[in-house]
Automatic annotation (TrEMBL):
This is N-acetyltransferase domain-containing protein. Gene3D superfamilies: 3.40.630.30. PANTHER family: ACETYLTRANSFERASE (PTHR43441:SF10), RIBOSOMAL-PROTEIN-SERINE ACETYLTRANSFERASE (PTHR43441). It comes from the Bacteria. Pfam families: Acetyltransf_3. Residues 4-160 form the N-acetyltransferase domain. GO terms for cellular component: cytoplasm. Coiled coil: none annotated. It comes from Cellulomonas biazotea. GO terms for molecular function: protein N-terminal-serine acetyltransferase activity; protein-N-terminal-alanine acetyltransferase activity.
């Protein structure tokens, strides 16, 4: 039986992060351009960027049978306005199983309940329909397109923004346990 949960990252997840990064080349964009050349780089990335929550950023590993296979982030937390930016990625080998949707929905519920946030925002490249489907299934409504917002190398990409409000209907998604 497979057990899926969300939990905090630890440096013990360095091998899993490296495996995800090598097995999913598209993740380089999701990791903010970080250069993860080996397990040691991954341990340092986890220690400085994923395992160290602050008052404005929280990162959760999506784990299957204890192995981290993805991340859901709540960042740019602005308590005065009750807003935050959501992000997510899932390793290629476990995509299309609903893990990103369940993880994003779980983190959104946590951000509203535990942080008292009202508006959660996210964005995805318009050429990434799978990410759009995750956002929509997780209750994030599309709000518009920001033209040429992202640049990877010399190429620019349009981004569709979505938002979910605390008063929006709860999506029909089975939430993950959050350790």
């Amino acid at each position: 039986m497979t057990f899926v949960e969300m939990r905090r990252w630890t440096t013990a997840d360095a091998g899993a992060l490296y495996s995800a990064f090598v097995g999913s080349p598209d993740l380089a964009r999701q990791l903010g351009g970080a250069s993860l050349q080996d397990v040691e780089d991954c341990a340092a990335f986890i220690e400085t960027r994923l395992a160290a929550p602050s008052a404005s950023s929280y990162q959760f590993a999506v784990a299957v049978d204890g192995v981290a296979v993805g991340n859901v982030g709540v960042s740019a937390v602005e308590r005065a306005h009750g807003t935050a930016w959501m992000s997510y990625w899932i390793e290629a080998r476990v995509r299309r199983q609903g893990l990103a949707t369940r993880g994003l929905s779980t983190a959104a519920r946590w951000a509203v309940d535990e942080l008292g946030l009202f508006r959660l925002e996210l964005g995805h490249r318009t050429d990434n329909p799978a990410s759009c489907a995750v956002a929509t299934r997780s209750g994030f409504r599309p709000e518009g397109v920001e033209r040429s917002k992202l640049r990877y190398g010399t190429e620019r990409f349009d981004v569709e923004t979505h938002a979910r409000l605390a008063t929006d209907p709860e999506p029909e998604v089975a939430l993950l346990p959050l350790a």
